[in-house]
Amino acid sequence: MSSMTRTAAIAHRVLLTIRADKRTVGLMFLVPSLLVGLFSWMFNSATLFDKVGGRLVGLFPFVVMFLAASITTLKERRSGTLERFLTTPMKRGEFIAGYAVAFTLMAIVQSGITLSFAIFVCGFDPKGNSWYLFLAAVVNALCGMSLGLLASAFATSEFQVIQFMPAFIFPQIILGGLFVPVEQMPDTLHTLSDWLPLTHSLRAIVDITDGKPTSDILLEVGIVAAVCAGSLLLGALTLRKRT
Amino acid sequence: MSNVATLSGISVHRGKTEVLHEVNLQLEAGKIIGLLGPSGAGKSTIMRVLVGVQARVTGEVSVLGAPAGSAKLATSVAYSTQSSSVFDDLTVEQNLQFAREMVGAAKERIGGVLAEVGLTAQAKAKVGALSGGQRNRVSLAMAMIGQPQLLILDEPTVGLDPVLRAEIWAIFRQLANAGKTLLVSSHVMDEAERCDQLVFVRDGRVIASDSLANILLQTNSTSAEAAFLALATKQVAA
Lengths: 243, 238
Fold this sequence. Notes:
The complex is a heterodimer. Chain A is mainly alpha-helical. Chain A has one domain. In chain A, 80% of the residues lie in helices and 0% in strands. In chain A, helix 2 (22-43) packs antiparallel against helix 3 (46-79) and helix 6 (130-151) runs parallel beside helix 10 (214-238). Chain A is globular. Chain B is α/β, with parallel strands linked by helices. Helices cover 34% and strands 27% of the residues of chain B. In chain B, helix 3 (109-117) packs across helix 4 (132-144). Chain B starts with a strand and ends with a helix. Chains A and B meet through helix 1 and helix 4 of A and strand 6 and helix 2 of B.
């Protein structure tokens, strides 16, 4: 049995576990759309919504995936299943890869639903290429997932994982340029903002809707993808066989 | 009699305290070995040392001629943690399917182990909806699926009624008769009489390792409980 088949088996199992909980599936797929809808209703102006709509499409999957991934992996660490299967031929890299594959599929579905809802129901005009927007949203969701996976290593209970939201996710939202453009922030916050992954994923989305050159867009998406890869690597390091 | 595993001079540290002190132990092939002692005595730690997931171990561990936790033992040693380590959200069959894929066992093994643990009728049921005894049997079936030489099962019968416990012990006996070695932990002393070899653990030390008959003889006791008490008192006095 090869590494590939074990990775596929892990991805399959993660998807089965998520599917088994119908309510979570419903929440994961519908809540981002409903929030986007709420924003569009609140702005009550097509020009204003066109300005933030894209970033909202990227933001909510990021948050939802962070939570979903951190809680599922925490459960795995705590229930003994991770310890048990680390004594089989399963490698921790395969475990991480299996989770990444499963959550990529989830992210594709979720981002697809949210983006379609924004465009077709809320009348959001993606201006630039909506496929780029879709790609940016998926990468963003994956970034949320990989940060969640890493965060689960530092939590010993579900309560703590929930507390990581205000601790690590909210500052990224606040400094991400959604409320005040990054350029207008005090220097210290500007610099800090540049170091946060969400800033770059939101900037990628703005670049897309502003019709910036592809190279600009790919640079920002690339930074997010690198953060994603980095935290997956760190996440793999936290999955110690010997504890 | 050949040994499937040997611990020599094993100590384990957790934080600043030493939780296992110079443990020596031999597990004989084809036997059911009972690891008995109160909670917190170090039973789980000994098991974790044997499967190679325990950190900060000093001393020597040899399992089937290899160092504990090495890659060649990944399919010949099966381990089930104290919390059963099963996926509650999945069906019995899906749990076994996953365990099968991890150890690379044949598809046909699923039906085989289900029959052996008597869960054929529950194959499509969610594990979380099963009774404690059935859940433990799912965990056991997952350990059995790769036909390992050595099964290390942490508290596999905890909280079960005597009928279910007897059923699980019957499965253990069948496995031992087929030449497998089982290390089974329990804090229930009356499980001692079902084991071929007993290992009494207390305060991070092995205070006895022998057959029940020999232990009773040496301590001049009539029950495992009394023998444990006698040995523990001697340990305190020493």
